[in-house]
Design goal:
The complex is a heterodimer. By secondary structure, chain A is an all-alpha fold. Chain A contains four helices and no strands. The N and C termini of chain A lie far apart (about 40 Å). By secondary structure, chain B is mainly alpha-helical. In chain B, helix 2 (about 15-25) packs across helix 3 (about 25-35). Chain B has a single domain (about 1-60), classed as 434 Repressor (Amino-terminal Domain) (Orthogonal Bundle), CATH 1.10.260.40. In chain B, strands 1-2 form a two-stranded antiparallel ribbon. Chain B has five helices and two strands, in the order βαααααβ. Chain B is globular, with a radius of gyration of 11 Å. Chains A and B meet through helix 3 of A and helix 2 and helix 3 of B.
Chain lengths: ~130, ~60
Amino acid sequence: MNTKRKTLMITSILITFVILGFIVSERGTKLFQGLNLFIFTAIIVIGAIVSIVTIKKNREKKAGLTIEDELSIKIKYKAGYFAYLYSMYMWLFIFLFKDKFPNIESMLGGGVLLSAIIFGITKFIIKKEINDKE
Amino acid sequence: MKTRIKELRARDNITQLDLAKKVGVRRETIVFLEKGKYNPSLRLAYDISVVFKSKIEEIFIFDSE
């Protein structure tokens, strides 16, 4: 790992901790309990995955490789369609069980995060299931 | 659909990455094509046939089913 990348990584981790520290000092440790803990964990996991994918894509771009082609576009569109469809059912369930959520922010935040997770899972499944009968 | 891409790559000593670069797709797409898991567009099939200096029907073998 070169110095530039190491510096960037350390800076990102420091910024994350500063932001988390700021949130804790502002709203207390209660924020990291129950559903909020799930939301924060999901944000960190999704953030890490997105960062890794972005770094990988940038590296490929610099190496002169194609980042997006007909297959990746097809997968993305198909995953988007199914993710939208399944998200509709998810929102229906969320509204059915809205009393279980501590506040509206948790409900909406959780819903948006779940939509992102659904998109990721759908994309993964579609990639695995591609076959010549399409 | 079956393809002869792997065989032709070995003949011409071309890696998956080289082929991907030549036809402007990701290496992953070449992997899917070689496994017969993806039907390419006519454009991509044509580009691949140009690289291997072969006819499209010599590279891609379509099943009637």
